Amino acid sequence: MAGSIPARGTYFIMFNLHSHTIHSDGVLLPSEVAVRYMAAGYKTIAITDHTDYSNIDANIKAVLDFTRHWPKNSSIKVLSGIELTHLPVEQFRPLADYARKQGVKIIVAHGETIVEPVIKGTNCAALEADIDILAHPGLITDEEVNLAKEKGIFLEVTTRQGHCQTNQHVVERALKLGARLIINTDSHAPEDIISPEEVKLIAARAGLTVQEIKKIYQDVASFIKEKEG
Ligand SMILES: [Zn+2]
Ligand SMILES: [Zn+2]
Question: 46 alpha carbon to ligand 2 midpoint, in Å?
């Protein structure tokens, strides 16, 4: 049933591949971000700080240093990432390629959310670059959804205030056209690191059934496995 609320205790392995630290506009160190997600029951996260030409080398160094030193036997895995944010559209491709070459695992692009003046054409330019996730894509067009589908790029359902206003549109178009979906917190502060139950509630409000949510997490699990391989 569309919009039904997942039962408490429903088994999902929890992932969040979009989070911020003091290396951009988050308030926590990467280590505290990891520890707080671990305490909240997550199994894998990615740290994806806001990045442009001014800080790409510093962000990549910080996140690679951190993830390479994170204990392999920890109950939470931490993947390296960046979020290409508010770029002139022609910069998505070179910066994504550069980050990939340095070994960054998860490349997020800051999509055309309706609550910020993101440059028009960002969704399309980001989808044409080598990214993994188009975050908060706002009122994404069918042409862009099809491009995401073709390239296997995830479209994000977000629990973040403001950006979440277009979740229903993103879900509806992605399900209709068969593009991949991912559910992320886009956390910046401790209160954004919400419980798996709260994440599922927001996903249900976006129009996803329990089965669809489960399928999304299975797809993300196989994507993470590929990234680690
Ligand atoms: Zn963003
Ligand atoms: Zn973000």
Answer: 11
Q: Give pTM, 2 decimals.
A: 0.95
Region label for 166, one of left (φ > 0), alpha (ψ between -120 and 50) or beta (otherwise): alpha
Contact 65, 104 (CB under 8 A): no
Distance CA 142, CA 126 (A): 15
**What CA–CA distance (Å, rounded) separates 111 from 86?**
8
pLDDT at residue 173 in the model: 98
pLDDT digits (tens, 9 = 90+) for 181-191: 999 999 999 99
Q: How far is the CA of 111 from the centre of ligand 2 (A)?
A: 10
Give one DSSP letter per residue of 2-23, joined into a string. TTPPPPTT-----EE--B--TT
Question: What φ, ψ does residue 2 adopt, rounded to 5°?
Answer: -60, 135
Which of the ligands is closest to the CA of residue 184? 2
User: What's the CA gap between 193 and 58, in Å, rounded?
Assistant: 25
Task: Give, rounded to a whole angstrom, the gap between the first and last alpha carbons of the chain.
Answer: 36
Low pLDDT (below 70) residues in the chain:
1-11, 229
Cβ–Cβ under 8 Å, residues 195 and 167: no
Instruction: Work out whether the CA dihedral 131, 137, 142, 143 comes out positive or negative.
Output: negative
What is the number of the ligand closest to the CA of 134? Answer: 1
